[in-house]
Specification:
The structure holds 2 protein chains of 2 kinds. Chain A is an all-alpha fold. Chain A has helices spanning 12-36, 42-70, 83-114, 134-169, and strands at residues 119-120, 124-125. Chain A has one domain (12-177): Up-down Bundle (Fumarate Reductase Cytochrome B subunit), CATH 1.20.950. Chain A has a two-stranded antiparallel ribbon. In chain A, α1 packs antiparallel against α2, α2 packs across α3 and α3 packs antiparallel against α4. By secondary structure, chain B is α+β, with helices and mostly antiparallel strands. Chain B has helices spanning 3-34, 96-103, and strands at residues 37-41, 47-54, 57-63, 66-72, 81-87, 91-92, 115-125, 130-138, 141-156, 159-171, 191-202. In chain B, strands 1-4-5-7-8-9-10-11 form an 8-stranded antiparallel barrel. Chain B is elongated. The chains are: A mainly alpha, B alpha+beta. The A-B interface holds A 40-43, 45-46, 48-49, 52-53, 114-123, 125, 132 and B 54-59, 94-95, 97-98, 100-101, 180-182, 184, 186-188.
Chain lengths: 188, 203
Amino acid sequence: MAVRNTEHRWGALSQLFHWLIVVLIIVQVTLASLADDLPPSARKLALLARHKSVGITILMLVILRLLWRSLNLTPLLPDTLKPYERFLARFTHAALYVLLFAMPLSGWMMSSARGFPVSWFGFFTLPDLVPKNKSLYEALLTTHETLAWVLAAVVTLHVAAALKHHFMHRDDVLRRMLPFTTTPGPKA
Amino acid sequence: MTPRSLAEAARAAATLMLTAALLLGGDARAADAAAVTHYVLDPAKSSLEFTFLQAGAQNKGRFTRFQVAFDFAAANLAAGRLDVTVDINSVDTGDQERDETLRGADLFAVAKFPQAHFVASQINRTASGYEAVGKLTIRGVTHDARVPFAFRTATENGATVGYMTGKTSVRRLDYGVGQGDWKATDQVGNDVGVSFALRLAAH
């Protein structure tokens, strides 16, 4: 598989970014729901510290991913799409990118507002984005939680669309983001 | 008595008085330097803070209620004594939930151990100032401790005040501050930095 994208297929690096972020989002949901059920404790602190570190990792990955995207071809949408489907695809992808920024940033701001500086796995401490403020913290907590549900909804739409392409349209939209597959179309 | 012997007598008396004055004056100055001054805390202008590593990042806290008694004479260090009592309930890390956790049984256990206490009956001079050598008790556990500090006095509105500053560090687990899961040091570090800036009034 080529590292770079082609008009018909996502390259290895784009796929790596995509699937790494998928795995990390699953880790994030797991850590957050485990921590949510706990009273204040050392274990809760550890889970939330990991959650923050992984969140910052996703933020770094999404920045790199967008840079790579800007330096690369973006595989074309199939010609068979109706205009509203084209719009919906573009909108969903844009929303996913926005949420991939908004989730870690709202989490980081929330931690700053709480007065708990964010460390990246203990290697370095990030600057506080906002001053410590209780009501701001509460507003950001609500925002972070709400955005998580919005992300869940958009991801559901994204997955449903990929499956629809694969099983109903029988095109290569899903396959071209999967490693170890071949896609039709002109070879380089 | 001849006038000559009178003059001699006067000279002798003057010399005697001068010598006495010098001796007495000198004694007074020496006694001044060795006199122990008793200082008490000016709580409004004093702070007792601590720093700790939480989840990889430096965090800060302070105690808002504590008492200090300090006996000190620069020329008579042997008479020095420092006594500090900290009301652990007054812990303030800027986060209510965290403060409640700190007061809980697995950390400070304030219900059982409401106070921390440092008492030093030995004050030493060091290259950069002084150190108080004594016993520190936290959560019912006592260990020897040395606390370095700087001390200077000033006269403010005709009264003598002392400024004492310093910092040291305490290993929380030496005193059992951290039971159960809190014994782990990966999320909350063992080393806790303690710093103080005290204004003391001579009593």
